[in-house]
Design goal:
Distance between the termini of chain A: 50 Å
Largest sheet of chain B: 7 strands, mixed
Structural class of chain B: alpha+beta
Shape of chain B: globular
Largest sheet of chain A: 5 strands, antiparallel
Structural class of chain A: alpha+beta
Largest interface: A-B, 41 and 37 residues
CATH superfamily of the largest domain in chain B: Aldehyde oxidase/xanthine dehydrogenase, molybdopterin binding domain
Shape of chain A: globular
Number of strands of chain B: 31
Strand content of chain A: 15-25%
Number of strands of chain A: 12
Helix content of chain A: 25-40%
Oligomer: heterodimer
Strand content of chain B: 15-25%
Radius of gyration of chain A: 20 Å
CATH class of one domain in chain A: Alpha Beta
Strand order of the largest sheet of chain B: 3-5-1-15-12-13-14
Chain lengths: 352, 755
């Protein structure tokens, strides 16, 4: 393994100073960075372990009702927070559907936002990848691209963002709190992840040396709690990235939809918010016909980037399904197989 | 030094001694405590003094030559001791490309700058730490002259191999298949694709090698110690006795550790180069090339049946691939020799050569891909005939082996079908597909598959001793891959000596011990077990001779009546009140111990007269999301008959593991190969999918009683591989029954079910 300096700052200032060193990379849970260091896709000179920084590990309800989740909160911790899961059940369900129990124990919120694509060519230094090395080309085009993007891709890059957690965060209009050498700032979640365009190497709004400090969830989002679900289609029942996933949140008023939120995962380089589909649902009766139309609208601009046209139809169906699940109501308990089509949430009592 | 497990005596032993037998008891695995406490030392756990660490640099192209390596950069890295390349690799006594017999496989040992597959070793960096060796390998930054590789079955020139599998004919027929199909009322012709699959034993190949004077001391996992020793001796020009290999535990083998692999030899070469003990452990990704894999297949089944559904012809054709530089052809068609009765059967093969590592043995080689295709095709024919798939299989039940015409040595398959179907609840299954739903609206389907695997025997030797203190010692260089050999062989050894299991020191896992053959072909228990059985019998015969010829013995003159050994005593067979202890016999004879040797080989005088196979029936339930296409194998019941069961506890685990492998075959497992580069893109356990627990929520294995008087004196067939067969097809057939969609590509992709 490449020799690198390892520093473990105990204050934010120290961390930012270390992060400003050439070739620095921030380390939190390490569930993605370390893998990429092993393949050689990432070769940092300085690894700045920020897990001992204070004040980044709390879940706080702010005065205005917003909920602030520190960037170092572990996925498992957040999912197991009962008050949080009651307020934002689709986020909890997405968290529990991700990775494996061991990985969720290590992985952090900030790291989840910043994880790299799972495109095999990205992780492999011997492959051409504009995202990893600008200008080298894209081996995924014309290569193995069954699970690649169908929305928002460019000729330069067809990678997807693999996160589950980020999908409901996008639907919630979360805000990303950032700290850096130039001070603190905020970025709306929808602007945090970048579509590839001509510069696929620029994957987020973070400037060099900046750290994600927290994600803030609008308190208004709690109004969706009775009708908020996440659905993940995958090739095995656990420990697999989504082929396609979708989050849906509804506010219902006497059988009609007062407000809808829809986002998809695994279809683009960022969690994909389906604004047109949301708008079209408002005022509609919450029935399958409306949900199918929403699915059509959500994928209206989709086009295959390779051997992945099936993901477009799958995306439509996933949106329709998750809307139906959301309309049926959030279950009282997290399903035994969170976000799975096999979750057994209807017709049988959950957990006795 | 022989390996003996440091096992505490257990109460279990005395309990079943009361039943007069160790064989057949569900003894908990004797190495379990060592493993769960971390006390079991695997090859890579060894750290002899002065140890250096080696890391392989492997090729990122599949075909071409290495045009340059930055050896200076690697050597300049702190901690790097040496870089081994074709320029300085120590000499070998034998060309690694020599092939003196079909099962001597060519290795890549830095003999030249050629690259013949991706992940081929092209250099080895030896350093003071693993980290330094790994970075040294990265710093080599190889340059290649790359050539376009052949990567898929669609690439390259098709030819007919001279033989397939372990020397089977590439074309074999009985009856007139074309006439059978021409005259058939129902016909099925279908093509099934199975992917390349790669070995992912939890323990990657690893070696700690140390040269000691003129000899070699090695820790490395092996499923074939004697063969490995012979291979190393040949390569290095040593006498086999100069090579000592310790392999007490394997973290799984599945065929990948049957033949010594190139990287293990590179570890030995590295130790020679630096004059220090060297450890070399493959990374997970490095498993995808030089240690064998299962080749892809494209199988075409042509079946004919008469108006009542009876098969009139079966033609099972397989296209597969070997490497460009060696021969191993996945014998997928051969399963059709055995399973279903038909007056005309033909099995045939052709192949292409790919720029991959040479494919080799992988759990149920041949049978696993062959079974999923055959079971799918039979299911298609059952549907064409409008018959229940189980009834259809019973209608075409083979009373004798269809291809050879030989009687089966034993075949309790009907009982497997019956017991499995009853336990599963098969009765009442609707004939039409896509007719069952669960309470959530998920599609539900039920499928069945027939399991079969040959009951093989190889050659092995064992040595047994009874000491004056009454204890026994049994030695054979057997291999515990995790299947429980330490336990099952100790049970056989104890019975062979008429001792309690805790009164026997069973030694295995070392190349200095008698050759136990190979732990492969599901034949290890039968093969090494029979050698143990004969060695024990030889000792008892020697003791009996001493006692019966001594007028001071209560057994004096037992003569024709004979004696039996039980509980550390010899007893007159016709009067068990008369007998004495082993100790008493040895005391009187003034002997410290008596020794016996035993061997086993393939069968007895009547061996060739019978078709010898284990059988089973697997029933699977799947659920499929009707909109989203995601599949889950919600329930599997397998019923298997494999002769005498030495340890039902261990055997059940083998069946369950095989059934999970079958689920994996049908739904999950696949090497994703870039057709342009021939590289595997998912060479890690995150992306090379095998089932997780949530994918196999309900598994049940039923052990169906079967006595086989012909396979060997103990009546043992193999259990290690049969669970894969039948299971994969049962799952695939259940997917059809759930959805009405017949998917002929495995693993079944989600897009095939989005209809």
């Amino acid at each position: 393994m490449k020799r690198f300096a390892y520093v473990r700052p105990s204050t934010l200032d120290e961390a930012l100073a270390a992060g400003a060193r050439p070739g620095a990379a921030y380390l939190a849970g390490g569930t993605n960075l370390l893998d990429l260091m092993k393949t050689g896709a990432r070769r940092p000179d300085v690894v700045v372990d920020i897990t001992r920084l204070p004040d980044l590990s709390a879940v706080t309800v702010l005065e205005d009702g917003d909920v602030r989740v520190g960037a170092l909160v572990r996925n498992a911790t957040l999912a197991a927070d009962p008050a949080f899961a009651r307020a934002y059940p689709a986020i909890a369900e997405a968290l529990l559907s991700g990775a494996s129990g061991q990985l969720r124990n290590m992985a952090t919120l900030g790291g989840n936002l910043l994880q790299e694509t799972r495109c095999a060519y990205f992780a492999d230094p011997a492959s051409a990848c504009n995202r990893r090395r600008p200008g080298t080309g894209c081996d995924a085009r014309g290569g193995e691209n069954r699970l690649h993007a169908v929305l928002g891709w460019s000729e330069a890059c067809i990678a997807t963002h693999p996160s589950d957690l980020c999908v409901p965060l996008a639907a919630h209009d979360a805000v990303v709190e950032i700290v850096g050498p130039a001070g603190a700032r905020e970025v709306p979640f929808g602007e945090f992840h970048r579509l590839p365009g001509d510069e696929p190497q620029v994957t987020t709004a973070l400037e060099p040396g900046e750290i994600v400090a927290a994600v803030r969830l609008p308190g208004h989002g709690k109004a969706f709690a009775p009708h908020a679900r996440y659905l993940k289609v995958r090739e095995r029942t656990s420990y697999a990235f989504a082929v396609v996933s979708a989050a849906a949140m509804l506010r219902l008023d006497r059988g009609r939809i007062a407000e809808a939120r829809i986002a998809l995962g695994g279809v683009a380089a960022r969690p994909w918010r389906a604004a047109a589909a949301e708008a079209a649902l408002v005022g509609e009766v919450a029935d399958d016909a409306a949900f199918h139309r929403a699915g059509e609208l959500a994928l209206a601009e989709a086009r295959p980037s390779g051997e992945n046209a099936f993901k477009i139809e799958l995306g439509r169906r996933a949106v329709a399904r998750v809307l139906r699940l959301a309309a049926a109501g959030t279950p009282d308990f997290a399903p035994a197989l969170p976000a799975s089509p096999f979750a057994s949430t209807t017709g049988v009592a959950l957990h006795g | 030094m022989a390996e003996t497990l440091p096992i505490r005596e257990t109460a279990q032993g005395s309990a079943h001694a009361r039943h007069g037998s160790n064989i057949g008891q569900p003894v908990t695995r004797r190495d379990g405590e060592l493993k769960v406490t971390g006390a079991a030392r695997y090859a890579a756990d060894h750290r002899p003094p002065g140890l250096a660490y080696a890391a392989m640099a492997v090729s990122t192209v599949a075909r071409g030559r290495v045009a340059g390596l930055d050896v200076a950069a690697a050597k300049a890295h702190p901690g790097v001791i040496e870089v081994m390349t074709p320029a300085n690799r120590p000499a070998l006594a034998q060309d690694p490309d020599a092939k003196h017999h079909p099962f001597m496989f060519r290795m890549d040992l830095l003999q030249n700058d050629r690259v013949r597959y991706a992940n081929q070793p092209i250099a080895v960096v030896i350093a003071e730490t693993l980290e330094a060796a790994t970075e040294g390998a990265a710093l080599l930054a190889p340059r290649y002259e790359a050539e376009a590789p052949a990567a898929t079955l669609a690439d390259g020139e098709v030819f007919v191999p001279r033989a397939v599998g372990v020397g089977s004919p590439a074309d074999l027929a009985v009856g007139d298949v074309e006439a059978g199909i021409a005259g058939a009322v129902h016909r099925v012709m279908a093509t099934y694709d199975t992917p390349a699959q790669y070995h992912n034993a939890m323990e990657p190949h690893a070696i700690v090698a140390e040269w000691t004077g003129d000899g070699l001391s090695i820790d490395t996992p092996s499923q074939g110690l004697a063969m490995a020793r012979g291979r190393i001796a040949g390569l290095f020009g040593l006498k086999p006795e100069a090579v000592a290999i310790r392999s007490p535990f394997l973290g799984g083998g599945f065929g990948s550790k049957g033949m010594l692999s190139g990287p293990q030899v590179l570890g030995i070469l590295a130790a020679r180069l630096v004059g220090r003990p060297v450890k070399l452990v493959l990374s997970r990704a490095q498993m995808y090339g030089p240690v064998g894999h299962r080749a892809p297949t494209r199988q075409t089944l042509r079946l004919g049946a008469d108006g009542e559904g009876r098969l009139t012809a079966v033609h099972h054709h397989t296209r597969t691939a070997s490497s460009r530089f060696d021969d191993f052809f996945e014998a997928a068609s051969d399963v059709s020799h055995t399973v279903y009765a038909s007056p005309a059967i033909r099995t045939s093969y052709d192949a292409v050569r790919l720029d991959t590592g040479t494919p080799l043995f992988m759990r149920a080689p041949g049978e696993a891909p062959g079974s999923i295709a055959l079971e799918s095709a039979i299911d298609e024919m059952a549907a064409a005939c409008g018959m229940d798939p189980l009834a259809y299989r019973l209608l075409n039940y083979a009373e004798t082996e269809p291809m050879s015409g030989k009687p089966f040595s034993s075949k309790a398959l009907r009982a497997c079908y019956e017991e499995g179907a009853r336990r599963f609840g098969w009765e009442g299954r609707p004939l039409a597909p896509r007719t069952m739903r669960d309470e959530q609206g998920l599609l539900v389907g039920w499928g069945v598959g027939t399991a079969t695997f040959p009951a093989l025997m190889f050659e092995a030797q064992a040595r047994a001793v009874i000491r004056r203190d009454g204890r026994g010692i049994v030695e054979t260089g057997a291999h515990d891959m995790g299947q429980g050999a330490w336990t099952a062989f100790a049970q056989i050894a104890a019975d062979s000596l008429g001792l309690d299991i805790d009164a026997v020191d069973f030694r295995a896992g070392h190349s200095d011990l008698p050759d136990a053959g190979i732990a492969g072909g599901s034949a290890h228990t039968a093969t090494a077990g029979m050698a143990i059985h004969h060695a024990g019998a030889a000792v008892i015969a020697r003791l009996a001779e001493l006692a019966m010829g001594d007028e001071r013995s209560p057994l004096f003159g037992a003569g024709n009546a004979g004696v039996v050994a039980r509980g550390g005593r010899l007893l007159r067979r016709d009067d068990e009140t008369r007998g004495e202890t082993f100790s008493a016999i040895l005391d009187r004879a003034g002997l410290a111990e008596v020794e016996g040797k035993g061997s086993s080989s393939d069968g007895g005088p009547a061996a060739g007269d019978y078709a010898k196979h284990a059988h089973g029936a697997v029933f699977a339930e799947v659920k499929v999301d009707p909109d989203l296409g995601q599949v889950r194998a919600t329930r599997l019941v397998g019923a298997f008959a494999a002769g005498r069961i030495v340890n039902p506890h261990l055997v059940r685990s083998q069946y369950l593991g095989g059934m999970i492998w079958g689920v994996s075959f049908a739904l999950h497992e696949k090497a994703v190969v870039d057709p342009r580069t021939g590289r595997v893109l998912n060479a890690d356990l995150g992306e090379y999918h095998v089932p997780v627990n949530a994918d196999v929520p309900s598994l049940e294995a039923i052990l169906v009683a079967e006595e086989d008087p012909h396979v060997n004196a103990l009546g043992i067939k193999g259990v290690g591989e049969i669970g894969v067969t039948g299971s994969a097809g049962a799952v695939a057939n259940a997917v059809w029954h759930a959805t009405g969609v017949r998917v002929r590509q495995f693993p079944i992709p989600i897009e095939a079910l989005i209809v």
